Amino acid sequence: MLFGFEWDTSNDLVFAVSILPILLRGMIVTIEATFLGFFVALILGLIFAALKAAPLKIISWPAGLVTEFIRDTPLLIQLFFLYYVLPEYGLVFPAFLTGALALGLQYSAYTAEVYRAGIEAIAKGQHEAARALNFTSLRTFTHVVLPQAVPRIVPAMGNYLVSIMKDVPVLSVVTVLEMLNVAQIVGDRTFNYLVPLSMVGGLYMIMTLVASSGVRWLDQTLPKRGLSLK
Amino acid sequence: MSDTIIKFDQVVKRFGALTVLDHLDFNVQRGEKVTIIGPSGSGKSTVLRILMTLESISEGVVSVDGEPLWHEQKDGKLVKASEAHLRKMRVQLGMVFQQFNLFPHMSVLRNITEGPVKVLGLSKQDARERAEELLEMVGLANQAQKYPHQLSGGQQQRVGIARALAMRPKVMLFDEPTSALDPELVGEVLNVIAALAEEHDLTMLLVTHEMRFAREVSDRVCFFDKGKIKEQGTPEELFTDPKEERTREFLKAVLDG
Ligand SMILES: Nc1ncnc2c1ncn2[C@@H]1O[C@H](COP(=O)(O)OP(=O)(O)O)[C@@H](O)[C@H]1O
Ligand SMILES: [Mg+2]
């Protein structure tokens, strides 16, 4: 697609400027994979956390086993599993979607822990007050526990967002054209790896700094006592 | 006429090897104001927490207004209560906690209206009017939009009382409602409770170390020791002429301290 044309590598600066547009396109793919993966990790992690907290052992135990398995195995295994095994059962997703799902699955095992810690940090008295007022468990969770847990879990979740971003290059092995993959293709074509790889490093640093400051801003903005219910 | 609203019949409560309530028999009449006193660890809170269904029982039967609380009838047998049964029974009771336990992310108004709207199904408007009346009653009119952290401990506890009352319980449970307060804030909370005690129909169970207050508002005082009622009587009887040595020791320690 983008790689049909020749680049002039005689001048590093000219070369850098000429490949910037396609690296930026790769960066957009990286950002998309990051956010989709993060979104999946947030939702799946919440589900895992709820299952693991279930009073019934036949629910909590398998959930614990699955998250343990995910945590103890490399991302690449999850990725290959989804990419090569699922199609055998007729489930064929585009590489990008498969990759984002794998990232989300991997990190859901970690976000589940963050949820658990955040939920357990809610004082016992809050549960008791909710029970005394005859709230259902679901309402207690959604209206009492979760709004108070969210501000506590934002910093840890933010760290995982950045980690996911840094793991996106793994998706290149299943042909996703994220930023590093683009840079490598450029390097293969021009035999100049230094410039594209340095640029990817620089762009990554910018993305990480932006993401981190966004998380810090959110952490400082959210009321410590919980998301206020109007 | 005897009209029993709360009945503990040979109730045992254990935490592992620790027996906290030891075959307790304890009745409260409708509209009665009962104060529970006793040393720390004697099971006072446990009695209230069992009634609020925060703690289950190990043996015996607890009844509220003639119906078993922790059991229900199924195929002619008494079986362990389901969550549905507990939900049905719970509406009869309200609890005020030592640590207030207000919801920190909700305004005062929302703290009070959340239950009536979401559990009792009142309209927002009705719940709001009820909340405003209650806030007026506890001396906190105009504080509806504040958040708990913007209030003093005494004010927070008065919101806690309003929140419990908003559910219109038959029985109000107070577990050391002033123990977490600075001394100068105790009076304002006790005044609200004293005003409530004037209500003829409301049954009140109060755990407190405020002996002078207990004497003023209670119909009956129960002295708990080691998971049993060691002695009980009118405030007059119990405070001026305790029969049991344990009661005398306890009262002496509290009144001197
Ligand atoms: N959840 C629990 N697990 C184990 N022991 C408990 C628990 N709750 C209360 N206890 C114990 O039960 C005893 C009675 O407690 P409580 O009813 O709170 O006493 P009181 O209110 O009279 O001070 C205490 O020894 C306390 O440590
Ligand atoms: Mg207690």
TrEMBL record, chain A:
An example of a Pfam family matching this protein is: BPD_transp_1
Q: Which domain of life is it from?
A: Bacteria
Q: What is its main location?
A: membrane
The record ties this protein, via SUPFAM superfamilies, to: MetI-like (SSF161098)
Membrane-crossing residue ranges in chain numbering? 22-51, 193-218
Membrane topology note: Multi-pass membrane protein
Q: Where in the cell is it found?
A: Cell inner membrane; Cell membrane
**Which UniProt keyword terms apply here?**
Amino-acid transport, Cell membrane, Membrane, Transmembrane, Transmembrane helix, Transport
Q: Which residue ranges does the record assign to the ABC transmembrane type-1 domain?
A: 27-212
Homology family: Belongs to the binding-protein-dependent transport system permease family. HisMQ subfamily.
Protein name in the entry = Ectoine/hydroxyectoine ABC transporter permease subunit EhuD
- Lineage, please? Bacteria, Pseudomonadati, Pseudomonadota, Alphaproteobacteria, Hyphomicrobiales
TrEMBL record, chain B:
Q: Tell me the GO molecular function terms.
A: ATP binding
* Residue ranges constituting the ABC transporter domain according to the UniProt record: 6-251
Give yes or no: UniProt keyword Transport.
Answer: yes
State the annotated membrane topology for this chain. Answer: Peripheral membrane protein
* Pfam short name (any one): ABC_tran
* Domain of life, source organism: Bacteria
Please state where this protein is localized.
Cell membrane
Q: Does the keyword Lipid metabolism apply?
A: no
**Entries under InterPro entries matching the protein:** AAA+_ATPase, ABC_ATPase_HisP-typ, ABC_transporter-like_ATP-bd, ABC_transporter-like_CS, Ectoine_EhuA, MetN_ABC_transporter-like, P-loop_NTPase
SUPFAM superfamilies associated with the record: P-loop containing nucleoside triphosphate hydrolases
Q: Tell me the keywords, alphabetical order.
A: Amino-acid transport, ATP-binding, Cell membrane, Membrane, Nucleotide-binding, Transport
Family, according to the entry, reads as follows:
Belongs to the ABC transporter superfamily.
Concerning PANTHER family, the annotation shows: AMINO ACID IMPORT ATP-BINDING PROTEIN (PTHR43166), GLUTAMATE_ASPARTATE IMPORT ATP-BINDING PROTEIN GLTL (PTHR43166:SF9)
Protein's recorded name:
Ectoine/hydroxyectoine ABC transporter ATP-binding protein EhuA
Native source organism of the sequence: Devosia algicola
